[in-house]
Amino acid sequence: MLAAALRHRYGALAVLIIVIALVPLIAPSAFHLRVAALVWVFALAALGLTILTGFAGQISLGHAGFLGLGAYGAAIGPAHLGLHPVLALLLSAAFAGLIAWLVGRPILRLKGYALAIATLGFGLILALLFNNEGDLTGGPDGMPVKTPTLFGWRIAGAATWYWVTAGALLLGAWIALNLRSSPAGRALRALHDSETAAAGTGIDVAGKKLAAFVISAVYAAVAGGLLAGMNGLVTPDAAGFMQSIELVAMVIIGGLGSVLGAVVGAALLVVLPQALTAFQEYEQAVLGLLIMGFMIALPAGIVPALHRLLLERLR
C-alpha cells in the first residue's frame, strides 16, 4: 500500500514537472507564457480548494475572498506599510490563514447548503470591503502593485513569472500530495465519506475541517499575491463571486480530490476563453456549453476518467 501511495504521489508530480518543462519549448510567444503562468496561479488556488472540498468534503463558495486577501495584501503592504513585496505576500498569506481560522470556527459547524451559503456570504463581505474602502484599496478602480524583487533580482516579464508561478505550483502540489498520503490526509478523506463514522474512529472532526479550511485559504492567498504581482494591478474582481465559482468549477471539472485534476481544470477554464475569442459575443455561451458537455460525458472529472480508461486499457 505504501509503495502504491509513493508511486501515485511522485508520479503525479513527475507528470507536472514534465509539462512545466515542455511548455516553454512549444510556447510561440511571451503571450502564451503569460497564459501558462495564469494557469499555474489559478491551479495553485484550485489546489487549496481541492484540499478543502476534494479531501475534506467541505463546500466553499467564497474562496475568492482569500485570493483577494492575498492580492490586496501584496499591494497594500508595500504601498501603505513600506514592506518588501515578498514579505508582504508572505504576511498576507499568514493573515488569510488567521482570518480563515477565526471565520472557520463558527461556519464549519454548518453542513451542506448552509455551509455553502455561509462561505458565499463571507466572500461577498470581503469583495464589498475591497470595493468600498477606496482610501486603502483604491476602490472599484483597484490599486497598482509594486514589482517584487528578490536579492536584487527584479521579478518581471512573462518568462520570469512563468518559472516563479510554476515553482510555487510545484511546491503546492508536493505539499498536497504528501498531505493526501499522510495520516492527516487519510483523516480528511474519512470526513469526506462520513463525518459520523470519522468521529466514531476518534478523528477530531472539527479540528481537521478547520485545518483544511486554513490550508486552503493560505493556498488561495499565495495565488492571489502572485496574480497581483504578475498583473501589476489588483481590483475587487479578484475576490468576486464569479471568481469563486470558477475555482469550484476548476476543481470539479478536473476531478474532485485529484491534484492533477485541479491543474487540468484550471488550464481548461483559463485557456478556453482565450481560444474562444473568435466567437465574440457568443464566447460565454460556447464556454458554458463546453463545460456542460465535459460534465455530462465525464461526471467524475477529466483526470479520474482518463486514469480509469488507462487502467482498463492496461488490463
The backbone outline, from C-alpha atoms, is globular
Could you tell me the strand content as a percent range?
under 5%
Q: What is the spatial order of strands in the main beta sheet?
A: 1-4
Helix count, DSSP H or I runs of 4 or more residues: 14
The portion of residues assigned to helices is over 70%
Supply the helix-strand structural class. Answer: mainly alpha
Over the alpha carbons, how many angstroms does the gyration radius reach? 19 Å
Number of strands: 4
Largest sheet: 2 strands, antiparallel
Q: Which residue ranges are poorly predicted, with pLDDT under 50 across at least 5 consecutive positions?
A: 1-6
- What is the H/E string? HHHHHHEEEHHHHEHHHH
Instruction: Give average pLDDT, whole number.
Output: 87
Amino- and carboxy-terminal Cα gap: 20 Å
How would you sum up this structure, described in words?
- The chain is mainly alpha-helical and 315 residues long.
- The chain has 14 helices and 4 strands.
- The strands form 2 sheets. Strands 1-4 form a two-stranded antiparallel ribbon. It has a two-stranded antiparallel sheet with strand order 2-3.
- Strand 2 and strand 3 form a beta hairpin.
- Helix 1 runs antiparallel to helix 7, helix 2 packs antiparallel against helix 10 and helix 7 packs antiparallel against helix 10.
- The protein is globular, with a radius of gyration of 19 Å.
- The relative contact order is 0.18.
